[in-house]
Structures are given as C-alpha cells and as structure tokens.
Specification:
About 0% of the residues lie in helices and about 50% in strands. By secondary structure, the protein is mainly β. The protein is globular and about 55 Å long. About 25% of the residues are buried.
C-alpha cells in the first residue's frame, strides 16, 4: 500500500507547466470596513460552528463538519465531527486563532510554534511572514519547512448558507516541504473570510500544486481544492 495515498475523493489534475491556481470569474468586491476597532476573537467552551465541506473541482459536498470548542486552557481545542459521527483530529491553538495542530489539509500538521491564521490587529493590510517547522501525525524525526506570507486584503459583504456577513478576506501563500518526499516545489494558497459576528471564519478555501520529477519532464499536479462554508453557529450555552 502507498503510505502517502491521498484521502478518498482526491483529484490530481495534470497541468501545463505555466498553469496557475484556480481563480474565480471575478475578483473580490471590497466594501468599507466596520466602524471602530475590531475586537479580538473570543471563544468559550460550547461554541459551535457547522460547515459544508465542498469539493470545488466538481461542486459536490464532501462532508458536513461540526467544529465545537471543548477546551480553552491551557490550549484552545476545537473538536471536529462529521455528520455521521466520525471524529477528525482536533484543531489546537495557543489562543484564537493561532494554530498549533492543523487538521484542515490532506495530513494533520503539528507546528513547532503557533502559526497565526489572522493578522493582529484585524485590519486591512495586516499580516506578515512566518517561518516554522512542522511535523505530521504520520511521523518524522525532524521538522519540515513551512514558510508563509499572509495579508488581509479587505472587507467583503459575503453571503454563505448561514446568512450574510461582513468578513475580512485574509490570503495566505505557503511554500513548504510535503510529508510525501516524492513531491517537490509544493505551494499552497488559502483564503480565510473571518467574520467578527461569529468569532471565526464563515468561509475558508485552500488548494495547491506540486511537481513529481520524472526524467526531463516535471509535470505539475494539483492538491485537493476544498471550501468550507458556514451552515449555522451557536454561542456557548
């Protein structure tokens, strides 16, 4: 069996060498920011968000995922459960939303130090560069490289199944060494739409590309292309 076999439903698309990552038909439509300073995210045990997980290649639903805060100290822990009751690895943060254990991608990653998913403060133009090591739950004796640049592009008036939200669009570009060493030149692009009204993202989307060298030809392959959209949420209690 291939140790690094992709999860069920993975689609690898062979592209021309100059192919770009998928983009929408139109660019983002930014709106004025909310008045006043944006409060930092605040979470409590019992807060819950439920998402549609969508395969963006074909538009099909992959799962319905419930994310629920089960612990806030000494680390923030968010459990992830599919609609059929299957548990995924937990999200773990040192505080909202600085990730230590990240199960959102193909393999769960554990970072050597927290990686911010949002800029601090929450403002247009905020962001920065992060360079850390990570390990996979599959196990390695040494950390792998994870370099990313993050920027908050602007505020959008976003409609998702849970309703309409004013959301800060945060873009991340990541260059990293994949746990599958057959892959080279791995690049991942992710966008997070954070809505202060729910203290978490109402939409999150990622995809990426990599090459597997072979002779003189280095074909480009695509990772999964996944979007989470908020279906509903509830406050603690």
């Amino acid at each position: 069996m291939d140790t690094f076999a992709p999860r069920p439903g993975r689609r690898r698309l062979l592209l021309a060498a100059a192919a770009a990552l998928p983009v929408g038909c139109a660019g983002p439509q930014f709106v004025p920011p909310p008045a006043g300073a944006i409060p930092a995210p605040r979470v409590q045990v019992g807060q819950r968000w439920r998402y549609d997980e969508i395969n963006r290649y074909n538009g099909e639903r992959r799962a319905v995922v419930t994310a629920e805060v089960v612990q806030v100290s000494p680390q923030l822990r968010v459990s992830l459960t599919d609609a059929d009751g299957r548990r995924r690895d937990d999200e773990i943060y040192d505080r909202p939303w600085r990730v230590v254990q990240e199960p959102s991608y193909d393999y769960t990653q554990i970072f050597d130090r927290p990686v911010p998913l949002l800029p601090e403060p929450l403002a247009v133009g905020g962001g920065g560069f992060t360079q850390v090591g990570y390990r996979s739950v599959l196990g390695r004796d040494y950390p792998l490289v994870w370099n990313e640049r993050m920027v908050a592009r602007g505020w959008e008036d976003l409609r998702v199944p849970a309703g309409r939200f004013l959301a800060l669009r945060v873009e991340r570009i990541i260059q990293f060494v994949h746990i599958d060493f057959r892959r080279e030149e791995s690049v991942r692009e992710e966008t997070i739409w954070y809505a202060p009204a729910v203290n978490r993202w109402v939409q999150r989307e990622w995809t990426g590309r990599y090459v597997i060298p072979g002779g003189d030809f280095k074909p480009i392959y695509r990772e999964d292309w996944v979007r989470w959209q908020l279906l509903d949420w509830r406050e603690a209690g």
